[in-house]
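Hi U.,

Before I forget, here's the chain from the pilot set. I'm dumping it here mostly so it's searchable later in email.
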Amino acid sequence: QVQLVESGGGLVQPGGSLRLSCAASGSIFSINVMGWYRQAPGKQRELVATITSGGSTNYADSVKGRFTIFRDNAKNTVYLQMNSLKPEDTAVYYCNADQVVVSGTSGSLVYNYWGQGTQVTVSS
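Structure:
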């Protein structure tokens, strides 16, 4: 019913920048929270940043001041601008859409969806 497609990952040198994008499509009436998570090899998936439909943001301490999350509600798209990248930022980054109301439903149920992930590698 709902698909999330990420783009923008790649290889970048330490100190460089990347912008990730995630477009949600399908039978969407509304999405309350969109966010980015990441998973490094051998580690658990962790929150990077989230943003509500009203624009409230939340960041992991490790990325505060370096990463910025923003979204275009009309396009159901969320972005993650990553600056001053460090090798420890290397991971697969996953897009998440939470509290999704599907079109044609009463809205009494909400859903959670994940993208397929995009690799970010920070290395010289």
